[in-house]
Design goal:
The structure holds three protein chains of three kinds. Chain B has helices spanning 4-29, 44-51, 67-72, 77-84, 118-132, 150-161, 197-203, 216-231, 260-267, 271-281, 287-310, and strands at 59-61, 138-143, 166-172, 175-176, 179-180, 208-212, 237-242. Chain B is of the alpha/beta class. Chain C has eight helices and 17 strands. In chain C, β4 (104-109), α5 and β5 form a beta-alpha-beta unit. The chains are: A alpha/beta, B alpha/beta, C alpha/beta.
């Protein structure tokens, strides 16, 4: 039995990278400030010292260049883990992600594979304003050919990152900034978590709440509050958005008859809307109340703390939404 | 120095590209080939002269005008033609079409529908080759128009700072769709203040030369010097090859931006005729033999057309495969 | 009468394969535009009335025209070419300039460019070459303003004719017909094809014929320069057979590339004298550019002549201007008896 320690989210990710780089020499890490600096959030700390500059490559601020280089390196046999400092920066390198990495296998008749992992940070709550606070995973879900991974705990972070590195497809791996400091139990030995398997973070019977990333924690807070009022909330974390575990959600909705989806992405045409559509298609007859979505309104993320608090989803907003659907039932 | 056999092979490959493109031109006009098709006729000396210097384990990245590169890399023309016809026997099972033919086994990392996108891919492939410790190289083909794409400029920088074994081959066919790379007319704005794209590479510290892209032996010698440097670990270089495309930017292009006379003027310096003349003068082959070779190329293409026409279309269910290495989509 | 001068800027000069095989600099087109502007300033200062600038594919001439237009007394105009992007543009422009009656042509390029201009306009128009090539035996490393100024003074006839001198040339006859002409050297290589044009593989040379070569030259001329220096003015030239087994001579064959070359045989040629080459399949390079492909069936003769380009000696021109001032001050000093106490 593997030793289990309390690690932060950052430490768990770091350990995953260390262990995979040790295991497989084809794993390389590249990105802005990943070497000497150790990554601006410290995820790649110590890798350069251990694996040297041939495997841990500090790149110029040149995302189209080095994300694309990750695709090219993956195409000829490496397993690059490329760090895009903030998801907000994808705009300068999107072609390499959605037209190159995502489509090559399909366009080339399934004869090749692109085992590329793009790690990036997401999320608001730190007054980083409109160009450093978005989550945007919905955009990557929208594009066929990308796997989308959104861990919410240190345990999931390590297991999912190891799975991502070993997976033969292009993956977008999203790390919420507010999660980096949280602690949780993490086994020392390497382990994988399969993609497309949701995790029920709290069991309940009155309402199903689907949440990802930092919102899992806000949903759990809401569940704790509501338990005092006698409302039993089931919190489901899909963990990967592509592939997506519909069945666990359908099963839960069939049990509770109510669904609230918490999504830090913009409201319009986002992850929450898609889940709502899936459930409406498949479980309409089981619903006792309209599906509610708790999302970020369609405005850029503001800088000033009271403004930012206004727009981002939180436990309070989740509680309000849950109470509405429970009342309607 | 080039052996006679090798020169004859190069001549055959040039004839094969020309025969393929001329035939596709006709087939497109007859409505037998769907979609967007960009033909390489007129530019054969560049692909063939460069690729004659490559060996197993070397890679190329290509462009939307990629048929010539594919053929020079030894991709089977039957599969290519079937791909253009959208057949299941195509190089990419009919999923890519003209703009997305790839054959990694042959070192062909893919034609590309996005102008300049091959730059970062070449960087990544070269990074991987360097990491693996081989003396293999990557050739990045891109047009004159692509030289104004940020991704290409980023690639030049990365190749220079990482001293990668990349040879940037600029196929200056005089037109970036309708705009002239040189001498714009009064109504057409300049696309670049650079007096030659080769100048820009110099700014990155990449040795850069201008090459007569109509003379396959000139291209061969220049590429030989560039490839040998790269194999010795001396880093990237750029060849600015001056050439001309006989057909439009795409099939169906009304070509309002240039005159018949201009095309005729360039056809006087046809790369196949120039090479044929030289082969005869050097005593490498008789005119009779060279004519036979050309006829053989034409019949190989005819065979490819037959193969394509007789091949089945893919089953509709095949639309759903090859998104990922696993069946999920 | 208005005096006209031509300006030819070769966009392709200084960009050949030797950038990958030697330490030769890349001469950027932006630099060439700056050189061109300085030439125009020099020509204008000398009193030239019209400056004809070659229009090229890259718009170098056009840029010089646009940027200098209106700021000179001289009238500027562009000389159109077909814009082939090849040496044909230089040949066309030089021919047109000669037909317009220019009194001098300034060339921005290397030995290859100067040779093309010479071929098109002959031995009667004074030429000056501003070094912008790989090897610059004919080119002057003076500032382009000085080259322009000197060419302008020559064109305006303000300078005695002894500041210009006719160089030699090497006429290459294939099967008794004049096939081409070089200014400095002819190299006969065993490479069977022209390839990337510029001559870089010195080992491939079997025979070389020189009209000039000094120890300060680089390129093929360097070989002669280190054995038997010959100037443009002298009436001799040399034939050499190169290859292993001969006496080794160190020469600077390309920028940054110093090689030991075996010289098996050397023979002096006088102006008017020719040498017939042993038959073979060769590619012949003229002034460093592989141009002619010949087979065993062809006879090849190379003849040293005095019909080379009329070259302006920038140093001599400018010194002669300064000597005019000397005369003035010397006379003044004589008239006033003594200095003013400085």
């Amino acid at each position: 039995m593997s030793e289990v320690r309390e690690l932060t989210f950052v430490e768990a990710l770091n350990e995953a990278l260390m262990q995979e780089m040790e295991r497989d020499p084809s794993v390389i890490v590249m990105g802005e400030d990943v070497g000497v600096y150790g990554g601006i959030f410290g995820v790649t700390k110590g890798l350069l010292e251990k694996f040297g500059p041939n495997r841990v490559i500090d790149t110029p601020i040149s995302e189209a260049g080095f994300i694309g280089a990750g695709v090219g390196a993956a195409a000829v046999g490496l397993r690059p883990v490329v760090e895009l400092m903030f998801v907000d920066f994808f705009g300068v390198c999107m072609d390499q992600i959605y037209n190159q990495a995502a489509k090559m296998r399909y366009m080339f008749g399934g004869k090749i594979k692109i085992p590329l992992t793009i790690r990036t940070t997401i999320g608001g709550g730190v007054s980083a304003a409109a160009q450093h606070s978005q989550v945007l995973y919905s955009i990557f879900m929208h594009v066929p050919g990308l796997k989308v991974v959104v861990p919410s705990t240190p345990y999931d972070a390590k297991g999912l990152l190891i799975s991502a590195i070993r997976d033969d497809n292009p993956k977008m791996f999203f790390e919420h900034k507010l999660l980096y400091g949280i602690k949780g139990p993490v086994p020392k030995e390497p382990y994988t978590i399969p993609f497309g398997v949701a995790d029920v973070k709290a069991e309940g019977s009155d309402v199903t709440v689907v949440a990802v990333a930092y919102m899992v924690h806000e949903a759990l807070k809401a569940a704790d509050e509501l338990r005092k009022e006698g409302i039993s909330v089931e919190v489901i974390d899909p963990r990967t958005l592509v592939p997506f575990d519909k069945e666990t959600i359908f099963k839960s909705v069939k049990k509770t008859g109510r669904l609230v989806i918490v999504d830090e992405d913009y409201d319009r045409a986002g992850f929450a809307s898609w889940v709502a559509a899936l459930v409406a298609d498949e479980c309409f007859g089981y619903l006792d109340a309209p599906i509610k979505r708790v999302t970020t309104p369609n405005v850029p993320i503001p800088f000033s703390p009271p403004l930012e608090r206004e727009v981002l989803p939180n436990a309070k907003k989740i509680i309000k939404a849950i109470k509405e659907v429970v009342k309607k039932g | 120095m080039l052996t006679h056999d090798k020169m004859i092979n190069m001549y055959y490959t040039m004839c094969l590209i020309r025969a393929f493109e001329d035939r596709v031109h006709e087939l497109f006009a007859q409505g037998k080939i769907p979609g967007f098709v960009h033909l390489y006729a007129g530019e054969e000396a560049v692909a063939v002269g460069v690729i004659a210097n490559l060996k197993r384990g070397d890679f190329i990245t290509s462009t939307h005008r990629g048929h010539g590169h594919c053929i020079a890399m030894g991709v089977d023309v039957r599969g290519m033609m079937a791909e253009l016809f959208g057949r299941r026997t195509g190089t990419c099972k009919g999923k890519g079409g003209s703009m997305h033919i790839a054959d990694f086994e042959k070192g062909m990392l893919g034609a590309n529908g996005i102008v300049g996108a091959g730059g970062p891919l070449a960087i990544g492939a070269a990074l991987a080759l360097k990491y693996k410790g081989t003396d293999n190289v990557v050739v990045c083909f891109a047009g004159d128009g692509a030289q104004n794409q940020g991704a290409v400029l980023e690639s030049l920088n990365l190749a220079a700072v990482w001293k990668l074994p990349v040879i940037f081959v600029v196929e200056d066919n005089q037109y970036a769709i309708s705009l002239r790379s040189l001498t714009p007319s009064a109504l057409q704005p300049r696309v670049s203040t650079a007096k030659s794209v080769a100048e820009r590479a110099i700014g990155f510290g990449i040795p850069s030369i201008t090459v007569d892209g109509q003379d396959v032996l000139a291209v061969y010698e220049a590429a030989k010097a560039a490839v040998e440097r790269a194999r010795r670990g001396e880093g990237p270089s750029l060849l600015d090859c001056k050439t001309y495309r006989y057909y439009g930017h795409f099939e169906g292009d009304p070509m309002v931006y240039r005159s018949r006379e201009e095309i005729e003027e360039w056809r006087k310096r046809d790369p196949i005729l120039i090479f044929k003349d030289k082969l005869m003068r050097m005593g490498v082959a008789t005119e009779e033999l060279l004519n036979q070779i050309r006829t053989k190329a034409v019949s190989e293409v005819e065979e490819a057309v037959k193969f394509a026409e007789e091949s089945p279309f893919p089953e509709p269910s095949e639309a759903y495969t090859d998104v990922f290495t696993d069946p999920y989509y | 009468m208005v005096v006209g001068v031509g300006l030819i800027i070769n966009p392709d000069a200084g960009k050949d394969i030797r950038r990958l095989l030697s330490l030769a600099s890349y001469v950027s087109n932006f630099t060439k535009v700056e050189l061109g502007k300085r030439v125009v300033a020099g020509l204008d200062a000398a009193g030239v009335g019209e400056i004809y600038i070659m229009h090229d594919n890259y718009g170098l001439g056009e840029d010089v025209y646009t940027m200098m237009h209106g700021s000179t007394s001289a009238k500027l105009s562009l000389v159109e070419t077909k814009g082939t992007g090849t040496v044909l543009d230089t040949l066309t422009a030089a021919k047109k300039m000669a037909d317009m009656g220019v009194k001098a042509i300034v060339v921005i390029g290397g030995d290859g460019t100067l040779r093309a201009v010479f071929k098109a306009c002959g031995s009667n128009i004074p030429l000056v070459c501003v070094a912008a090539g790989t090897n610059n035996v004919t080119g002057a490393y003076y500032d382009a303003t000085l080259a322009g100024y000197a060419a302008g003074l020559v064109a305006c006839n303000k300078i005695s004719r002894e500041c210009i001198s006719k160089a030699k040339s090497l006429e290459v006859k294939v099967d008794d017909k004049l096939a081409d002409v070089a200014v400095i050297d002819v190299a006969v290589t065993v490479t069977p094809y022209v390839g990337a044009r510029a001559l870089f593989d010195i080992e491939s040379i079997r025979y070389a014929i020189f009209s000039k070569g000094e120890p300060t030259d680089i390129g093929l001329a360097s070989i002669l320069g280190f054995i038997k220096p010959v100037s443009f003015e002298s009436d001799e030239g040399y034939f050499m057979e190169l290859g292993g087994g001969g006496r080794m001579v160190k020469a600077i064959v390309m920028p940054g590339v110093i090689k030991s070359i075996g010289v098996k045989y050397i023979k002096k040629l006088n102006v008017g004298e020719g040498v017939e080459l042993p038959r073979g399949a060769y590619t012949i390079a003229l002034d460093g550019e592989r141009e002619l492909e010949v087979s065993k069936d062809n006879s090849v003769e190379v003849k040293l002549t005095r019909n080379g380009p009329l070259l302006i000696n920038v140093g001599k021109v400018l010194r002669s201007i300064s000597s005019e001032h000397h005369v003035y001050w010397d006379e003044l000093a004589l008239r006033e008896g003594s200095s003013n106490g400085y």
